[in-house]
Design brief:
Blueprint lengths: L2 H22 L2 H13 L7 H4 L3 H21 L5 H27 L5 H14 L2 H4 L11 H17 L15 H14 L7 H20 L5 H21 L4 H25 L9 H18 L4
Helix pairs in contact: 2-5, 4-5, 9-11, 10-11, 12-13
Length: about 300
């Protein structure tokens, strides 16, 4: 028996063991599948579930994904409540996958098993250092190396299909996240800035253009929307260029604003004021006080 054969046999044994372990842990998955199948059963099923389509479930998929992200970010506290919330929200996301898969199966397109099999094959192909180490020569010893390999394999697969370098950025995701990915793909193709100063000037020029539209008389809503979109896209491009995920940054900034505003509200009400009675200067003073107090406690940056 050659060395190559022994390695292949060892890898096959590893895969067989993995499949056996997975089979032991599929009881919960099978139960969830059975429940969804009954919900979609024309005989005794749920009218609401039976009436759903991929299109009607789209907003639920988006909503559940955002709720899962919120639970993921809160899970760093490692409290029983945050752990339960994360488990619950991940289950809600899985429900959307199961429902959409069941709809596809009902239409004779594919099954949930097909979804899982396709995912497994894709993961195996994009992790040759794990599943085919005997034929893999590149040294993969860091998360960055894994990411680079993943992107290279993905690009190689995409190159076999005719199309644009911008292909593969789906329109269903959040607009800011999509803007960042579109910009990143354009940069990788060579459409980039020679230095940070040029990039910064480009971003600032978009703010100058929206400012000019704001000062126009009369203001034109379509022009304002167009220029505001350019500002958002420029900021997303800037984020990607400096290694910041724009969607994550905005989620974090929104959470920080919410925390400060809620604390500011408590200060205002504790002082006996009504929110609607405050002028800008008073609002600003309370806002700065809230920032100062939260920073002093280490609860906010």
């Amino acid at each position: 028996m050659t060395v190559e054969t022994r390695i292949e046999d060892a890898m096959q044994s590893q895969l067989d063991a993995l499949e056996a372990k997975l089979a032991e842990n599929l009881e919960g998955v099978q139960k969830a599948l059975a429940v969804v199948q009954q919900l979609r059963n024309p005989e005794g099923g749920c009218p609401w579930d039976l009436g759903q389509t991929h299109q009607s479930l789209t907003p639920f998929m988006i909503e559940e994904a955002y709720e899962a992200v919120e639970a993921m970010q809160a899970s760093s506290s490692n409290t029983p409540e945050s752990t339960t919330a994360l488990k619950d929200e991940l289950g809600d996301v899985l429900l959307q996958v199961l429902l959409n898969s069941q709809i596809a199966e009902d239409e004779g397109l594919f099954t949930f098993q097909d979804v899982c099999s396709h995912l497994a094959e894709k993961l195996i192909v994009r992790h040759p250092h794990v599943f085919k180490p005997q034929s893999h020569t590149a040294e993969i010893d860091s998360p960055e190396a894994v990411t680079a390999q993943w992107q290279a394999i993905k690009a190689s697969q995409s190159a076999q299909k005719a199309g644009s370098v911008l292909d593969g950025v789906h329109k269903g995701q959040a607009a800011l996240a999509r803007a960042g990915k579109i910009s990143k793909k354009a940069v990788k193709a060579g459409f980039t800035w020679p230095d940070d100063a040029t990039l910064w000037a480009c971003v600032m020029s978009e703010f100058d253009e929206i400012k000019a539209e704001m000062e126009a008389t009369p203001r034109k809503p379509d022009r304002l929307q167009d220029e505001m979109g350019d500002v958002f896209f420029a900021c997303a491009s800037l984020a990607k260029q400096i290694g910041v995920e724009p969607e994550t940054a905005l989620v974090q900034a929104t959470a920080k604003f919410e925390q400060r505003f809620r604390y500011m509200e408590s200060l205002i009400l504790a002082d006996g004021h009504a929110l609607g009675d405050l002028d800008f200067q008073t609002w600003d003073a309370y806002w700065n006080r809230a920032k100062s107090d939260l920073r002093a406690t280490g609860l906010c940056s």
